[in-house]
Amino acid sequence: MKKYLVKVASIAAVLSLAGCNVNDPNTPISQTDNNKSELSVVPDGIKKIAVVERKGNELVIPFTKYQLDNGLTVVLHPDNSDPLVHVDITYHVGSGREEAGKSGFAHFFEHMMFQGSENVADEQHFGLITESGGTLNGSTNTDRTNYYETVPSNQLERMLWLEADRMGFFLDAVTKEKFENQRETVKNERGQNYDNRPYGLLRERVNEALFPEGHPYSWLTIGYIEDLNRANLSDLKKFFLRWYGPNNATLTIGGDMDEAQTLAWVKKYFGGIPRGPEVLPPEYTKVTLDEDRYISMEDNVSLPLIYMSFPTVHLNHPDEAPLDVLMSILGSGKTSLLYKNMVKNGKAVQASAGHGCAELSCQFTLLALPAPGNSLTELEAILRASLEEFEMRGGATKDDIERVKASIVSGMVYGLESVSGKVAQLAAYQTYRSNPDGINDDITRYENVTKADVMRVFKTYIKNKHAVVMSIVPKGQPKAIAHEDTWQRYERNIPENDDNQDLVLRVGQSDFDRSVIPSPGKNPSIKVPDIYRNTLKNGVKVLGAVNAEVPTTTIQLRIQAGQTREAVDKLGLAALTAAMLEENTLKSSAEDISNKLQKLGSAVSFGAGDKFTTLSIRTLSKNLNETLAIAVERLTLPKFDEGDFKRLQKQQIEGLKNAKKNAGPVATEAFSKLIFGSNNSFAYSNNGTVESVAKLTLADVKAFYKAHFGPANAEIIVVSDIDNQGMVKHLGALNTWQGKSSKMPVIKPFPELVGGTLYFIDKPNAAQSEIRIGKRAMHYDATGEYYRADLMNYNLGGAFNSRINLNLREDKGYTYGARSFFNGNDFKGQYRAQAGVRADTTADSIVQFRNEISAFQKDGLTDVEVQFMKSAIGQRDARAYETPSQKLNFLSEIMTYGLDKNFVDEQNQILANIGKAELNSLAAKHLNLNEMITVVVGDKAKVLESLTPLFDKIVELDAEGKPL
After folding, report:
1. Which residues face 75 on adjacent strands?
2. Residue of 312, 266, 269 whose CA lies nearest to 289
3. Which of 135, 256, 513, 755 could be disulfide-bonded to 80 (CB atoms 3.0-4.6 Å)?
4. Helix/strand/coil for 529
5. Kind and range of the H or E element at 157?
């Protein structure tokens, strides 16, 4: 279900939803209106286009849509439930608007838009928003680019000033130096997320084979390195002038705002920006294949992979919805055909289906990774047989349709839990449909899907149709592919770059001084959630908070049965036991439970961490009793079937093997074992090691469950629209839970660290190196030295515009991101600085880390940095308690460390009173490089020689962190 739940995740409706009041989106509304829920007078130069209101308890996203004379569309969604606003500006341009030979421009430009504009200095965009307690980012896909901020509500005017300045006054601030720096950053992003990641080039190779040469979907949004290298400053400016006009943008604002004042600010800052060239909707061209195209590649992976991609329709096509239903039936969850035919029987460790849609094309995909002993050729045969089975059994069943629709509706409701989610959905509907109110259309099209529709689209787009079939196999195993290649990558035809076009700038108009940064309004009043405490009859403690905004319930039952309860020779046992609790019970099959949960729109899962195994429950509140009954059944009546154990054990082993191909997790785990000791189980990955998991038995799982899965010391944290008394009544389902519990084991002594040592792990041919520098540090303390040290580190490595990140990413272009942090709990703590850097910069990256850390230790913070930190951290609580997950985090902190909710007030008092002298003293105490070790995972042949002069001692390790 993941694919279309993401697509419609913020739609809010129930199956009996009545239609909401929507004006024709293309008909202007009178400029004066007596309706109390609407703005009575609209400023000159702005037209009111459409209004959607909430009636009663309808789950809708109310909004008003306006348009400026320059074509900018504005969508406002007032919501005063939290003292924050979310601002999103979406430009209808993505990689689908790029030309052949100029791939990656849309994404590259997204990076450039954070580098300052005429009245905003380099890095000031990040600085102003971070200092205000806000968060920001941008994203690019095939069809749109968006920029967004979530800030305290008093910062709204400043956000509009920032966004308007880079829309209307950007080009004069672009420099060659900024251009080159961000080009390197994008290359690092490609290296980290594509070239250096297992299976990272899958979609690039498939898209090349699926789409005709020159089709803008035939390349990825990240683009090709050679195209990025060929780009020049003139290309960038042309791209901006063509696509970044107000008439190709939607400004969507949600949160605690005064609508009249907001419109006045929008008019002030955006009204003088001239229109850009007219932009027509992209033209859809049907994609077809005349035969199956088999392609393959060798990669640094442990398991082969087979991937089939069928071209289908396009975003919002009438057949998109039934294809989504078909996708769910074939490959989503334990009720799917692929799970039954490939995963349940142990032939594959993973199998799934997808249906990703964009404006110019959708792809129906099938994916599988074989369990050892099974070939890609066999899996392809099973994939094709599963398609035949779907038709032979008569297609979709009534149960299938009911399950899919319920999952859609629950996803819609969950999407209402944050202002940012609602704003993102409004912006997407406006961008792709010219109407922010796409809710009713989506509800209707999915509700109206019939069994006949699903069979029709299967026969139209999948049955006997051709696909791209890709095999990815481990390096050195070319014969493991499913089929010999029948299609070869072509040499791209790159048109000559036309540099003779004159740039005609669009000069914005202003009747005020744009260089003056708007002052924020009065700081909003921030209130931490009210909490309640209770105890169940079996002693389980309950800590809860009411969230009345959305009718959902989120529960975490934390059982002290985590990794600390494992012996070192039983590593991975807690994780394997948690996985077993999601399988068959003594009353029901895993498939039956999955079917029930999907029809309820609920989720029940188990996961193991350092201290706890956590039972997580998410449901619509109206379905809480039924969902809790399933959760209790899984918790108290596990079947512990031998077949389930063998299958999950294989999956866990293969997951561990694959993780060893990713340099980031390898570096982090090696660092953890070095500072906490290989004789402490929590120093390892939660999933254990290949060696330890292979030795586990079903008897081990049963014994672990029997020894640790009782109610003593168990805790529940819950966020729901149901009040204390009602929730305790519902949680009574757990009163009969019995079983043994255990005490926290004694932690083994930590090893002595030899500061200044380099521990090196070879990853041949790695395009990047992963660096970890650090040491053991303090345990968690909400109001003690741990909290104060975290404040100290904020300017060094805790914010985007910290010294470390600005140096390595923004100034040097070595990395996609670098940071440092303190991390601790009640029995361990660490300080760590880290980054994934371009391989040829490994040595200098370490030098830069050292320079920044040592300078910070020696000289401390500046007065400006102290004030920046206090402002940023002091205001960020405005966005700390909005969603159920954020409230759960707050409750978790209280429950785990025995805090009162007023600890936040104490932290704020510390923040207000802490001075530069104390912060600098903490830096001097905790940032001694002589106490720190360094771990590097990279290509030995490329980088080790350059590292030798930097270290007195170098120890080479294998991928498990053991000395060679």
Report:
1. 65, 252
2. 312
3. 256
4. coil
5. helix 156-168
Look up tokens 């254990």; give the residue. Answer: 688
Backbone φ and ψ of 273, nearest 5°: -85, 125
**CA pair distance 163, 147, nearest whole angstrom:** 8
The amino acid sitting at 564 is T
For the chain, residues with pLDDT lower than 70 are 1-40, 498-503
Helix (H) or strand (E) holding 136: strand 135-140
Residue 925 has phi, psi (to 5 degrees) of -75, -40
* Cβ-Cβ contacts under 8 Å for 938 (sequence gap 6 or more): 663, 760, 761, 762, 763, 766, 768, 769, 770, 839, 842, 944
Q: How far apart are CA 407 and CA 410, in angstroms?
A: 5
C-beta of residue 468 within 8 angstroms of C-beta of residue 289: yes
Q: How far apart are the C-alpha atoms of 96 and 279, rounded to whole Å?
A: 13
At a CB cut-off of 8 Å and minimum separation 6, what does 729 contact?
none
User: Which ranges of 637-778 would DSSP assign to H, the alpha helix?
Assistant: 642-659, 663-676, 690-695, 698-708, 724-731
- Interacting residues of 392 by C-beta distance below 8 A, sequence separation 6+: none
- How far from chain centre, in Å, is Cα 895? 26
Return the exposure string of 711-745: e unless at least 16 CB atoms fall within 10 Å of the residue's CB, then b. bebbbbbbbbbbebeebbebbebbeebebebbeee
Euclidean distance between CA atoms 885 and 926, whole angstroms: 32
Phi, psi (rounded to 5 degrees) for 418? -135, 150
Query: Which tokens in the block code for residue 575?
Result: 């994780």
Taking Cα atoms as reference points, which of 236, 284, 274, 261 lies closest to residue 111? 236
757's enclosing H/E stretch is strand 757-762
Contact 856, 927 (CB under 8 A): yes
pLDDT of residue 10: 30
Contacts of 255 (CB under 8 A, 6+ apart): 77, 78, 79, 80, 82, 84, 85, 86, 153, 156, 419
Task: Return the SS3 of 32.
Answer: strand
DSSP, collapsed to helix, strand or coil, labels residue 782 as coil
Dihedral sign from CA coordinates of 791, 797, 801, 806: positive
Q: How far apart are CA 620 and CA 600, in angstroms?
A: 8
State the Cα–Cα distance between residues 62 and 166, nearest whole angstrom.
29
| Residue 326 vs residues 333, 549, 610, 963: alpha-carbon distances, Å | 13, 33, 39, 51
Residue 852 identity:
E
Phi, psi values for residue 543, rounded to 5°: -125, 120
CB atoms within 10 A of CB 103: 25
Instruction: Say which amino acid occupies 376.
Output: L
Strand partners, 831: 775, 822
State phi, psi for 537 to the nearest 5 degrees: -60, -25
Annotate 427-484 with DSSP letters as a single string: HHHHHHHS-S--HHHHHHHHHT--HHHHHHHIIIIITT---EEEEEEETT-GGGSSS-
Angle at 664 between CA 854 and CA 577, to 5 degrees: 125
CA-derived radius of gyration, the chain: 28
Give which of 821, 885, 858, 817 is closest to 193, Cα–Cα: 817
326 sits in which H/E element:
helix 320-331
Query: What is the strand order of the sheet 468-474 is part of?
Result: 293-299, 468-474, 305-311, 362-370, 348-357
**Position 189: which residue type?**
E
Tokens encoding 64: 């008003």
Q: How far apart are CA 302 and CA 348, in angstroms?
A: 14
Tokens 């009204």: give the residue: 271
Per-residue confidence (pLDDT) for residue 501, from 0 to 100: 63
Cβ-contact 775, 933 below 8 angstroms: yes
Note the pLDDT of residue 878: 84
Alpha-carbon span 325 to 309, nearest angstrom: 17
